[in-house]
Amino acid sequence: MLVPVASERCPVPIIGLGTYRMTETECRVSVPAAIRMGYRHIDTAAVYRNEGAIGEVVADLVAKGEIAREELFITSKIAPADQGEDKAYAAVLTSLSKLRLEYLDLMLIHWPGASKLAPSSPENAALRAGTWQALERHVREGRVRHIGVSNYTVAHLDQLVAHATIPPAVLQIELHPWYAPADVLAWCNAHGVVVEAYSSLGEGYFVDRERVPEFPEVDAPAARLGTSRAAVLLAWARTRGWVTLPKARSEARLREDLASAAVELLPAEVAALDALTAKGHKFCWDPVSVL
Prior knowledge:
eight-stranded parallel sheet
């Protein structure tokens, strides 16, 4: 299955394999299975502690001729503990080494704050500015193709573009039918920034029929299409123009998530899910207090 890309400026496939909370053992099973069935986008991070296993898998598949490195889009992220120019520069080299790569397709700043600093500390802004300078150096030196951020608010984004010489290509944030911050999405649209959605399934809440036995806005299109709640939620995100990063450990779920790229919702179904975003409920951490 050929997965389209989100943007010519940053050719990231619109569906990727998320690896948050996946152990190295699980990655050694899920990542090769995903690549063999058509996934070309793998999302990891230093704090996930699975870069090494992903690097082993990719190197093995490339060595066997099953995939060419150039066919893959691999993302990692700078940990909050590595904020600041010198530490961030070294952190990229560490990720490249663990992943056994000569270059990364995308490197993100994972969080606007730095470890061991209070969210209210003005040092956060200075350190993440230094981190961005380190990422720009790696772009100029050929080790990173694209750079971006994760969990940034509009205030953080405005600060970034005020000093950046290379603008962010991607913003990765929590997005689902209960949370889609209009101000952030409008900023990205105005600046040509690709939006990546994590927690598209509400940290699993929306697809848990014990906790959510009825979800008519999702169940109705799922019944019409003969598909799953997960596929509908991923398809809705695609209609919004977002890249999705579902995590799956079984081959059945991997196939289901990938197949969501072909799921087409009716305008009324999209509108019903859009209306739920007014709820403004986050399942994950909130960066709004980080200066």
